[in-house]
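User: Need the bound-state model for guanosine-5'-diphosphate:
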Amino acid sequence: MATNGAAPHQTRRTFAIISHPDAGKTTLTEKLLLSGGAIRAAGQVRARGERRRARSDWMKIEQERGISVSSSVMTFERKGIIYNLLDTPGHEDFSEDTYRTLTAVDAAVMVIDAAKGIETQTRKLFEVCRLRDIPIITFVNKIDREGRHALEILDEVQEALALDVSPQTWPVGMGSDFFGVYDWQKKQFHTSGGDRGGPYADTKTLSGLDDEALTGTVFDRILDELTENVELGAEGYAEFDKESFLEGHLTPVFFGSALRDYGIEEILDFIADFAPPPHSQPATGGRTIMPNEDKVTGFVFKVQANMDPKHRDRIAFVRLCSGTFKRGMKLKHVRAGKQIAVSAPIFFFAEEREIADLAYPGDVIGVPNHGQLRVGDTLTEGENIHVTGLPAFAPEILRRVRLSDTMRVKQMRQGLQDLAEEGLVQIFKPDLGSNWIVGVVGALQLDVVVDRLRAEYGTEIGFEAVPYTTARWIETDSQTLQKMIEGHRMSIANDRDDKPVFLFKNAWEVGHITEKFSDVTFRETREIV
Ligand code: GDP
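Assistant: Bound-state model below.
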């Protein structure tokens, strides 16, 4: 791909990998990083001395503040394209963190296990991408093992996700009979390296599957079947259409094996050629932020706390939406109405962190702070706008917090408030009674809350069941709200921003109350600005 003369943001590809646990996300991530060399270089190559200084600056921050950041963002460069791969949490519990990370990407790679097809987590994550019209590239993994027939997998993706599929490559055999991959767009035959593992042993460019170069080779045996399958595939599935892909209606499908390095280059080439550069970002007041605007804007999609209990420092992950960010810049923290100097922004690489001197739309910088920045915050060069589209979700699990040592109410509340700002839990303060209620989307988040309050705030808590199963944000005028509070005081609470919430006992009550207060809007999500 020619990148000469392109604006820096046009060379950015910011994406995430979505999958069900065990499908191969970690292995694929590793292989993508390896293939990209996992370094950020061209155009920004610095003198070695300067590089060393930058690195030691970062290490100093890491030591002084004790911040330890897992690989939430991995940046690498390949053939002039900067790939920013944003990690989504791998555990089965579906957290809001994942949703919000997906608000910061422009495309997603969906990894499917060839033997298992679409699994529950894949489907949930896919639905989030669909809500946001994020284009999806499908990678059918583990074709080095016995799996389902390629046609069966394509049908499943098409039907289960109601998505047009457009196969880009075709597996030639599977499992012990695996010979290689046929790239029917490029008309190339990639031959498997056999037992030696590693990437393709050979690549032949063909005129088609009837190319004479194939006769007499090991492929002869399966050529008829392959030709038939490929013909069926060509008839049964969509031709690749870039518009349709970018709108999220069509997914290109690649077959490969992350473990054996099959299909890695194809995916990276495809992302470079077809995945979109940074998209425009909606903001308050009907404003749309365009990546080519001069002024810097960005938003926090994730906050990671310090793992060291002695410190309260956090890293806010900021996705840049427009402008050229320069180290040391003063940016307006819109919610707080204050200027902040971003003096030690961080870039994340596979193996190291580095102080970010320059960053462009699509890039993610880490901003160390003492808790001023929280998920959903917008940074600008002065404009009073908030980026929109970062939702808080109605929790699926609600619990009342029980405190063992009542002398520690203050620490507990501070802790819960902090964790809520990180986006780990939601807190609800009931109108009646003083014990806070926490809400989460996945049960695992509750364990994390207990552990972190103990470790970081020296506070032992437990949870009690509550009669509520879900919450909805209430949108109405103050008079109606007052009337609601009078009639349903037990069910009303305020969230961490003092926004009113109705706590429902069950689905029947949701229906009943919604009907009773037909002029009130009950929201399942709330914009977190
Ligand atoms: P994750 O849970 O999605 O991150 O999955 P991992 O990358 O950890 O992979 C889960 C298991 O599948 C590991 O044992 C991997 O070695 C294995 N695995 C991943 N990719 C492949 C592949 O292409 N072929 C085979 N045979 N195994 C694979």
